[in-house]
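User: Structure with fructose -6-phosphate, tokens only please.
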Amino acid sequence: MIIGRCGDYESVSIFAADLVGRAISKKPHGVFGFATGSTPEGLYKLLVARYQHGEISFDQMTTINLDEYVGLPPGHEQSYAAFMQQHLFGQVNIRPESIHFPEAGPDPSEFDEFIRNAGGIDLQILGIGANGHIGFNEPGSSFHSRTRVVSLAESTIRDNARFFDSPDDVPREAVTMGIRTIMNARKIVLLASGAGKADAVARCLRGPQTEEVPGSCLQAHPNVTVILDHAAASKLNDKN
Ligand code: F6R
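Assistant:
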């Protein structure tokens, strides 16, 4: 595991954009996994700028998103599809038919088969929840889990209420790639910023590997780069 330590959120975004931009240039027809949430917004802004400067192109890639709320009407402004449209997909030359989100249909795990048939994920971007979740794999999720519908943890509902008019409006369920699905990606890039993530980062990177801390599974992945700002790295207690 490579741990990139940056001073602040902006440097995390630049570090991530360099890494992801290079991966896109190297394999423009690759399969790229995207995350939503506040953390990757800066990265997406920089990727859009690089596209506008002609440095990278999205027209050959396949995209996979980690998760989506269940129960929001299509096009709802807080849906993750709308988030991606606003922050990245709507601003670059991505082909609409190349965009894929997990779906809460009769068998959500068909998404795993779809990913396999597409050649597997070349690079998966992750954020991390303050409770250690990755995607919406909440504490207690099996390390063998596939794409499925899950109930959101109360702490996640509280954390995500900032995006909605009221906590009551936050969906209680989501469909998420499983831990196994995520671990099958050839490369994983985890971003974390802010003191609110420091505990989760320390537990994921330095604590025991346990399903109570979903992100701790990443210790077993052969190709992970973690990009942290000073505050998010503040509880690592080492100089690595
Ligand atoms: C989003 C996702 C979540 C977020 C996590 C952190 O697609 O899968 O795991 O990465 O909740 O969210 P932010 O970045 O808003 O702190």
